[in-house]
Each structure stands twice: as structure tokens, then as C-alpha cells.
Amino acid sequence: MDAVVRTGASALARRLGDWRRTGGSDYVALAVAIRGLIRDGRLALGVRLPAERLLAAELAVSRTTVTAAYRLLRDQGYLRSRRGSGSDTALPEGQRLSTSGLWAPDDEALIDLGCAAPPPPVELAAAARQAAEELAGYASSHGYYPAGLPELRSAIADRFTERGVPTGPAEILVTSGAQQGLDLVLRLLTAPGERILVESPSYPNALTALAAARLRADPIPVTDDGWDLEPVLPALTAGRYRVAYLIPDFHNPTGAVLPEPQRAALIAAAYRGGGLLVADETFAELALTGRPMPPPMAALDRHRRVITVGGMSKSHWGGLRVGWIRATPALIQRLAAVRAGVDMGGAVLDQLAARALLARAGTILPARREMLRAQLDALVGAVREHLPGARFRVPAGGLCLWVELAEPVASALATAAEAYGVRLAPGPRFGAEGTFERYLRLPFARPANELVEAVRRIAAARADLDALRPGRPATPAVVA
């Protein structure tokens, strides 16, 4: 008999948070909240929901309310039930979960603001042709390079050196994207059940990687005032954490930059406590304002406590699955051994294309920054015009605008926006269960006209939510 994955009543209640925020009847609000968890991936498909009686007790509502909510979800295709076997999460036919875990309909006309990734640069075609021409030169080899092509390792090392971090090829491991880099580090350096420091909010796929490794994430709060390290530094100094995961440059999702004194303080605390800092530099090359940037974390690290992960998905193109890890040569050798048990190395053709693109970085990156500046300006103007109650700080770089709404309705707004052809990443995707319901992450990676139109549609969806207040007809925000 297949094992059934279950979620307990208390765990589901924590994920639901303030589930009554959409207004209307309790059973409708509860159904909308559970549906939102399913749609954006916070509640996996095929998970057995708790018994109606148990969830009712946990939420302090009548069993009739939970029964009606489950019935509504079954009618809409979000639950499948068999008599005596409980209710399992599902999706209606014609809808799917995207690879990021965020729900998306099969609709190419959708304006996708769930993914912070730009289109490829025009130089990609030339780089691909060059890679294809060079590929024949590797035909006499076995084609397996667990640490990466030597030529690409050298090119990445040179890029670090240009940024003020002297690096040799032996300090570089090429990965299939920055996400795999983090996964390899976690495989090597952590054990199930271990606690790890991670920013809150943080990158959803990093949180997924931590969960897959069965790690316990303890938060480093990132607020409007930046990183709150006061509760973190003593614990790191005392050796309570072996690993901390950080996005110091144009943090995802807030766009904030970790100041140099705090970088130095974290490195010093990690050194004293014997810990390691994993610095995700995926956005580091996307400075947009010309303001001076703090040195890279590794440039401040005299004791080799910093492991840097990065990749080409944000600066170049997500379809080119090439990333890297920078660490000590000894650690790189150990990571390469772990990598050999995963996929034996990345595709040679992709690595050759990546090397060709890095050789053109002097042309590509300035053009990318100019494009992103214009798109950020368009997005900021549209939010100010169409979402006047929203608050945000304009980031100095990266790809993300972190928008605070006047009310905690982000998940409901993401659901409502689907009817208007916009896919959103609501705040709870970036934090612990039930948190950041006042926030949306709005990437500015799409053309300016699409960003303006998307914000107009979000404003219309927000107006729909305003119409759903207690006393109004009890209908879901969106019937899918």
C-alpha cells in the first residue's frame, strides 16, 4: 500500500494564518485560503488534509464550516475524496503547477510576474554558434567534468578576480545553476534536523532546498531597516549554527544590500563559532544606480568562512543552466565528489556557451542594466499611479520590487489576479508559514508596457477584493 502524506490540523492552521481576511462566509474564506495554499505550492498535491473535526477544533469554528469548505474545494477540483479515505489535495483539469512550485494556468497570454528572470541577451545566438563550433574539440574526451570545464572554471575565476576577489580555477566548481550549488553545499555540510540561519523573507527555491534536506530554518529578519543581526550574531559566535544562507547583494525579494560593517560582523562571528556563510551572488552583477557597492563577502573573508554561489540565470538567461561555487580548493574537491553522485557534471555545450557569454560581459551587462533601469522606472510609476496605497523602497539593483500592501491580502490578491491574466508571487511564498501576507514581489524583468498593463490588472483585481467584505454575497474571489 502506498504511503499517504498527511498534514496535521495544527500545521495547516499555521499555514492558513489570518484566513478570514477575504471576508464573506467563513466556509468560503476557508476554502479560498486552502485553495491559495495549493495553487502557489505551499500545500503539495496529493497531501491528505486533516479530518474535518480536528481542523474545526484547531480553527475554533464549527465542523459544519470545515465540511462546507471541503465540499466547495471538491466541487472546484481542488480536493479528491473517497469514502472512508479522507480528502487529498489536487488541481482541476487544465491547470498545473509550474516548475517553481507556483501555480500557473496553461495560458501563454498570461503576464508572468511570478518569475524574476530576464529574456536572453541578443548575444546568446552568437555564443551558441561559437559553442557548437568548439564542441567538436571535446569529442575525443569522455565528456564528464564533475568540477566543470577547465576553461569555464578559469573564466569564472577571472571574473571574481576582476571584482576584487582573487580566485584561481581550483577554487571554482561549475554547477547546473546556482540552485544546484546550494543543494550540493547542503548535501555536504549539513545533516537532517540541523538548524540553519536563513533570511526572512528569502528566495522560495532556497527554502524548498532547505526543506528537502530536512533542515530547520531559523530566521535572520530583513526589514525596511535592513538585516536585524542583533539576535543572530551571538548565536553564530557561540557555534550554534554550522551554516547560514544569505543573499547580500540586491536581496531576493526585498532588493536590499547588506552593508559592509554587517558583512564583516557576520564573517567574524562565523569564524569565532566555526560556521560557514553561503553567499548567494545571483543578482550581484545587476547594480542599477551607480552607487558604490560594498565589497563582495568573499573579499572581506580572511579566514575562508564564505562559500559563494552564483549563476547566469538572472544576469543572462534562465535557460542556460550554468552556475558556480567558489570555495577553498579542498572544499571544491569534496563538493565535486558529491556532484559526481548527482549528475556527473553539466552539459559541455552549455558550458562552452557560458564561457562565450562571459567573454562578452563588457557589452552584455551594461545593456542589461540599461534595460532593467527603464523597466524598473516603468514599474515604479505604474505602482504609484494604480496602487496608491502601496509602500515600497526603490532598489538599487537586482530584479525585484518588494511592495507592501495596505492590508494582509497578498494570497487572495494573487488568486484574484489570475482572472485578469496576471501571475503573482505573494509574500507568503518567501517566508515562514502564514507570514508576509502584506507583500507582493513584483519583478521588473519583463518589457515596460507589460509591467504597466500588469499593474493595471492587479489594481482591478484589488478592487474585486475590496468588494468582498463581510455582508457581501459569499462567493470565492475566483472560481477556477
Automatic annotation (TrEMBL):
It comes from the Bacteria. InterPro entries: Aminotransferase_I/II_large, HTH_trans_reg/aminotransferase, PyrdxlP-dep_Trfase, PyrdxlP-dep_Trfase_major, PyrdxlP-dep_Trfase_small, Tscrpt_reg_HTH_GntR, WH-like_DNA-bd_sf, WH_DNA-bd_sf. PROSITE patterns: HTH_GNTR. Keywords: DNA-binding, Pyridoxal phosphate, Transcription, Transcription regulation. The keyword Transcription applies. Residues 24-92 form the HTH gntR-type domain. CDD domains: AAT_like, WHTH_GntR. Residues 82-101 are annotated as: Disordered. One of its GO terms (molecular function) is pyridoxal phosphate binding. In the C-terminal section; belongs to the class-I pyridoxal-phosphate-dependent aminotransferase family. This is GntR family transcriptional regulator.
